[in-house]
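Q: Please design a sequence for this.
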């Protein structure tokens, strides 16, 4: 691990194995941190943040830019570490490394925008706000975009003047550890700690640490709720949550159907084996075009190439681990039992190169009951649930009829329908005739059980500051 700018091991020497899910091989061992290790990271962070908050915003921006530069130079290696840790295809993980670089540069350019306000009071009073860092903050991240999250999510905390502790998923820790190594000599010692280990031990120790008052979590809704409760049992903390989704993609009969078919495939993120919070895993198609649409989509999905994640031509790789693999297969069984119609996929690959990995073919079920488990629960796998609707109100009721509210996508040529849908749908991020796209500078986040807080824009940067109001009386007894 990386604590205080130095390599660190778990205080009790414990380690965890890192598996390549595509081959079943153990590729590395890494520390399984204890609560003592978290204490050390917090102590190092407190010491380092005292100096860091005195630096100029420009100097903090320069550090982020230098970090972006070194990541760019090592992008291929970092992408490969993610591939052998989480089984997603190399071309996707390469893109992730590029997105991390973009995020670091975006926040490097935004440092001068951490600004308070002056508030009009009276002739001889001045009222203004100061935005100040917390000290040590923590980021707990999931397995699906290991490096992109590890690198991009330290940008806002550091830019705002904090020290930051990153806890990657125990299934995908290698690229975050490499980030810690690359950051040496660029990020001052102690300011960035990488703590690896199990969520219920290392993660929990971070959540309950009394000195960490600000923590941001990306992961499942159930873990997010447990974290809120655990944090609240210790102190009043600022906890933001980027959680799961069961996101609708709605196709009205006037849509450009070719584009919508491509979007339905792309939006499922089969290229990460469906393991994406923003995946549009519920497809709602108007009854008039439903059969034709499902048939065309099935053809497009069937053409996707499953293969070794290191192969440049692979379009869909391995599920991250056996737990997720079993979960995905159990949902396929549930779908059959619930009476959904399997259109394509639904099978695992076990021959030849696939023998020791967790490969599930991209799967499409149609005629799914909107109330069924397949339509209601986040699978986080390559399983798309399609269902017909009859009109706007019906589509909206189905779209909003889940506990989640992260993303939504609508395909229509009608301005009226597009704007009504964008207004009415319960989601934090809406695409019109588009899907999946994230844009730096626009705020991403969920409503309902998909989370709270907004990231990827200036909101994220400001969320790592605390506002202090200062009221000054400069009245003089002189005339
Ligand atoms: P997870 O909730 O199992 O784990 C996420 C992280 O939390 C890991 O680092 C884990 O070690 C840690 N953790 C687990 N239990 C903990 C505890 N009790 N205390 C503290 N930390 C703990 O999620 P996952 O399986 O790694 O990722 C998949 C989930 O992440 C999906 O639900 C997906 O939708 C969600 N996700 C959301 C977003 C978003 O931006 N909204 C992005 C990516 C993934």
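A: Design:
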């Amino acid at each position: 691990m990386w604590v205080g700018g130095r390599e660190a091991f778990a205080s009790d020497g414990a380690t965890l194995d890192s598996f390549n899910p595509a081959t079943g091989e153990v590729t590395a061992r890494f520390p399984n941190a204890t609560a003592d290790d978290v204490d050390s990271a917090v102590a190092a962070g407190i010491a380092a943040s005292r100096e860091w908050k005195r630096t100029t915003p420009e100097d903090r921006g320069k550090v982020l830019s230098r970090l972006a530069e070194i990541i760019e130079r090592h992008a291929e290696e970092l992408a490969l570490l993610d591939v052998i840790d989480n089984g997603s295809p190399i071309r996707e993980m390469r893109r992730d490394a590029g997105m991390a670089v973009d995020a670091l540069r975006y926040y490097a350019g935004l440092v001068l925008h951490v600004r308070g306000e002056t508030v009009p009071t009276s002739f001889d009073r001045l009222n203004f706000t100061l935005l100040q860092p917390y000290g040590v903050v923590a980021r707990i991240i999931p397995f699906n975009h290991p490096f992109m999250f590890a690198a991009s999510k330290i940008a806002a905390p550091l830019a705002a003047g904090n020290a930051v502790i990153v806890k990657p998923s125990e299934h995908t820790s290698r690229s975050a550890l490499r980030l810690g190594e690359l950051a040496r000599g660029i990020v001052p010692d102690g300011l960035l700690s990488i703590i690896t280990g199990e969520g219920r031990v290392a993660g929990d120790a971070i959540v309950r640490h009394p000195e960490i008052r600000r923590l941001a979590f990306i992961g499942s809704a159930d873990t997010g709720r447990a974290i809120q409760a655990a944090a609240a049992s210790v102190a009043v903390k600022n906890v933001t949550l980027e959680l799961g989704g069961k996101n609708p993609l709605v196709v009205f009969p006037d849509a450009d159907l070719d584009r919508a078919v491509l979007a339905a495939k792309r939006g499922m993120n089969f290229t990460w084996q469906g393991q994406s919070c923003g995946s549009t895993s519920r497809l709602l198609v108007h009854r008039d075009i439903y059969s034709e649409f499902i048939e065309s989509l099935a053809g497009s999905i069937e053409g996707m190439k499953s293969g070794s994640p290191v192969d440049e031509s692979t379009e869909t790789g391995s599920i991250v681990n056996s737990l997720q693999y079993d979960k995905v297969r159990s949902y396929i069984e549930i779908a059959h039992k619930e009476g959904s119609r399997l259109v394509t996929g639904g099978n695992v690959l076990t021959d030849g190169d696939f023998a020791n990995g967790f490969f599930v073919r991209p799967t499409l079920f149609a005629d799914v009951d909107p109330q069924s488990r397949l339509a209601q629960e986040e699978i986080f796998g390559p399983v798309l649930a399609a269902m017909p609707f009859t009109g706007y109100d019906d589509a909206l009721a189905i779209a909003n009829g889940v506990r989640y509210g992260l993303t939504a996508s609508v395909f229509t040529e009608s301005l009226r329908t597009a704007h009504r849908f964008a207004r009415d749908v319960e989601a934090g991020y809406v695409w019109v005739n588009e899907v999946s796209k994230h844009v730096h500078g626009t705020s991403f986040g969920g409503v309902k059980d998909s989370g709270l807080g907004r990231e990827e824009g200036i909101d994220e940067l400001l969320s790592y500051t605390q506002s202090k109001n200062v009221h000054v009386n400069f009245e003089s007894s002189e005339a």
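Q: Thanks. Anything notable?
A: The chain is about 40% helix and 20% strand. The pocket of nicotinamide-adenine-dinucleotide is lined by residues 140-144, 167, 169-170, 199-200, 203-204, 207, 218-220, 223, 226-227, 242-245, 277, 378, 380, 406, 446, 451 (CB under 6 Å).
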